[in-house]
Amino acid sequence: MIQEPSRHVPVLTEADVVVVGGGTTGPIAAIAAARRGSKVVLIERFGSLGGILTLGLNTKPSGALIGGIPLEIWNLARAAGGAGDDYMATTKTGGVRIASPTDPEIMKMLLTRLCVEAGVQILFETFVSSPHVEDGTVKGVFVESKAGRQFVAAKVLIDCSADADMAAKAGAPFVMGSGDAEARMQPVSMYFIMKNVDLVRLADWARDCDDVPARAIPGDREGLAYGLWLTGFNGMLRRFQDETGVKLQRDNITLKTADGQMYVNATRVLGVNVFSPAEFTGAILECYRQIEGVCRFLRERVPGFEEARLGQVSPILGVRETRHIEGEYTLTGADSRGETHFEDSIGADASALDIHDPKGGDVDFQSMPPYEIPYRCLLPRKVEQLLVAGRCISADHDAHARSRNMPACMATGQAAGVAAAIAVETGVSVRKVPVVQVQQALQALGMPLFARDVPQR
Ligand SMILES: Cc1cc2nc3c(=O)[nH]c(=O)nc-3n(C[C@H](O)[C@H](O)[C@H](O)COP(=O)(O)OP(=O)(O)OC[C@H]3O[C@@H](n4cnc5c(N)ncnc54)[C@H](O)[C@@H]3O)c2cc1C
Q1: Is any atom of ligand 1 closer than 6 Å to the C-beta of 379?
Q2: pTM, entire model
């Protein structure tokens, strides 16, 4: 251990609402709060917005975007040629309506433009090292950048760091993964892009292939640019590994297109402690090794990939699960299957259930009825003026298999932004803010709050 000398830290700026993390969730929270007139600062450690959605090359919400700012953004992306139409994906429990993938570059620009237009001050390349808490109430955050260590004051802090970094450092209770001694967590993966894929040949082959059971295959050529989604290849992967000696850690591959490029979700590393820089780096190296193996498999075994080449490897490792805050309410597996009605719901979600077994094995991807997310899941216990949105909300390991999906993350970001702004406007704490007022504001944005409001299409 080494003693760090104490020092005075300059105040960079003061805000009503500070949003930590400009990933999938943070920009929506920032836009929602700023459009209500709050002074918002959005702080992101990388140099662009979107997180796993864009930098992570994920691109596809596993469910329809059913209203509010997320749907507005997708419609703007569509108008800019950066997304296609929603499609129905076949799964073992029926069809899931999926919002089309988006072009990550168009989405980065769009999210940034919408933030700037709403008056959000973005701080890129700025790492938030910790919140500052006085008497149990958050007062701002310490940041690190090329300018050194600085302070950003906040009336309300929204933690969209994905790992609940702010909540944990502020002293809010949390669990890791399944919350028991095993702390089971869904594995990490790294996306990559294959270029020069013959999509027509691939789609024609996949239509008649039993080894690709979960799928969406558009009937027309134009639809292939954003509408081809294939999950499976299990038998082919087994044979490839047996015959070549190449070892991969995953039973299946998911392929999806965006702007005619092929996005590949095929790598997996189990049991990584992502809070250890050494383990995190080890996982990246292992993903690189697997990417080479998967590229070889695709080129040698899958029609349409004969001339394909590696186009891009995501610059970030995709982390599915770490901390879940312990909030005023913890969403359970049963709740996430649509079995509970919540009077304080801040958004309905119609995403698929999507579990990558923490111990390995196949992916469980299923359609489910819509469910509701209560405001209390965004409210960490023990710390005031802090909201949490995105994949680390108060949900147990089972519920997280649905609530980690991007449509749910975005819905929680939108609700946190609205609630924070109302709290600032009315001078009440985020814990005491009247939920009915938040719900009315969300409905005015066109967000369905309850499962019964989700459009049946
Ligand atoms: C490999 C993989 C595949 C997936 N597939 C799908 C799918 O097909 N469909 C689907 O709907 N969902 C999918 N998910 C889940 C979904 O993408 C994520 O749960 C969701 O995007 C998380 O959103 P988020 O905003 O919580 O986190 P992120 O998008 O990760 O955003 C967090 C942001 O916070 C920033 N940040 C973190 N800490 C700090 C700090 N201290 N200071 C400053 N900035 C910070 C990060 O740089 C990042 O930009 C997948 C996830 C993974 C990992």
Answers
A1: no
A2: 0.97
